[in-house]
Design a protein that fits this description.
- This protein is mostly helical.
- The protein is built from 3 helices and no strands.
Length: 85
């Protein structure tokens, strides 16, 4: 499967699974779903942190995700393709 077919299949599968989960769990999350709009709220307001700490936390988490997925790419790429170097 080349040309983005796998990406498309994963997207459609996630869409179907997410829609099914939402419809099945709606009675549990209905109070949250129907709660009023909070207006414009930022992460630092939501978590009660200073702006600098929030920026630092988001940056660190972003870098950790990049490192983690680069590690996965090299590790799983070698196993899938059978490369040893």
């Amino acid at each position: 499967m080349a040309g983005g077919r796998i990406d498309g299949a994963v997207f459609v599968g996630g869409l179907i699974i997410g829609s099914a989960l939402f419809s099945e769990l709606f009675t549990l999350i209905e109070p949250i779903y129907k709660s009023g709009a909070m207006g414009r709220i930022f992460l630092n307001d939501f978590f009660g942190l200073p702006l600098g700490m929030t920026i630092l936390a988001v940056t660190v988490v972003g870098i950790l995700f990049i490192v983690f997925f680069a590690f996965l790419e090299t590790t799983l790429g070698k196993k899938i393709s059978g490369r040893t170097n």
